[in-house]
Amino acid sequence: MVGLRERRIAVTAGFFTYAVLPGVWAARIPAVQDARGLSVGVLGLCLLVPAFGAVAALPVAGTLVSRWGRRRVFEWAAVVMAVALPLLSAAPGIAGFVVALGAFGAAGATLDVALNVEAVAVEQSYQRSLLSGMHASWSIGAFTGTGIGVASAAAGVSVTTACVVVAIVAGTALLACGRGLSTDRAAQSGPVFARPSARTMRIGLFVFCSLFVESAAADWSAVYLHRSTGVPLSSAGVGFAAFAAAMVAGRLVGDRVVDRVGPVQAVRWPAAAGAVTLLLGVATRSAVPSVIGFLVAGAGTAVLFPMAMVAAGRDTVDSARAIASAATVGYLGWLLAPPIIGGIASVTSLPMGIGTAAVFLAVAAASAGILRPDRVTAYAG
User: What is the pTM of this model?
Assistant: First the structure.
């Protein structure tokens, strides 16, 4: 029987280690593009595949966690994701590349569900907020993975070699983390695909808003700063750096804030401040106010996803499938943000497109009442 403290350490380390893999991949994408001779357009289409794989896998992942238990699903997903990482550069042909991308995204989403279900269960046992800090470890892991990828590229290490080494080390670490997870399964075993409750879907729409903002900052902040404010291309990444750093800081202090004021207030006011500051920043079309806008938006987005997972995890019948259902809707926000913002920018302006993210952040602030602890979900069979 795994102790509660060991489970907490395992899930926190699992979030960190799992995030290292996509971090390394993100840093080595340009090298893979060159090695495979992909045009920008083809690469853009290929990079949608992990997101599609994640969205497709999430509902199934929830059911697998319910039926097989968190540990077993986590361990299998860890093996698949670790194997898929070096295949992103080594798999033959475009077909092999696409299959590896799909497996990478699907395995990552499955790991995410298993970890969040375990994290919510650990938090409930402690009877105090922990999820924000656990998600901070994911953000730190992603930074670490990106640093490893950049360092390996600077040292002249080939993509495949770097990915094989990282896959072996991270994969082994993930399996060790898996031994610290609970083997609990859902008390009931329903159909593979079950209709989520209306409340679970509303939580999913809340997650949609959160991930829309994160995706907008990741994909469009540098383009906006360069084209609309005149920031040099070499420095254009400062917007997302500010957003990401503020998100990590917000998650590190988020648990204490939630325990003090409750999840609704901890989400509502920072998100509202982020929406207003981001909107005002891009309205100026000036670099400093815009970067400040991304900074405050990062802080305002910090605890949205963790608190949504906690709310979904209160499902009275099957928390795994409720978390997976909410995450499925939410991941669509990550997937749709780049084309929505690009479409709006093409018919109006890029600041108007970025302003869309501020609107979604304001919607998240307005709908924060869905996170109230006294509301409990029920999974509709």
Answer: 0.85
pLDDT surpasses 90 at 172: yes
pLDDT at 66: 84
CA torsion sign for 370, 376, 380, 381 is positive
Residue range 198-371 forms a domain whose CATH class is: mainly alpha
Query: Token digits for 311?
Result: 């709310």
List the CATH code of the domain at 4-178: 1.20.1250.20
pLDDT in tens, 36-88: 888 877 887 888 899 899 989 988 898 888 888 889 999 999 999 999 999 99
* Two structure tokens written together for 104: 């990478």
**Domain 198-371 in the same topology as domain 4-178:** yes
Structural domain spans, the chain: 4-178, 198-371
Which of 53-62, 190-199, 267-276 is least confident? Answer: 190-199
- Given a cut of 80, is residue 315 above it in pLDDT? no
Helices 263-284, 198-229: inter-axial angle, 10-degree rounding: 30
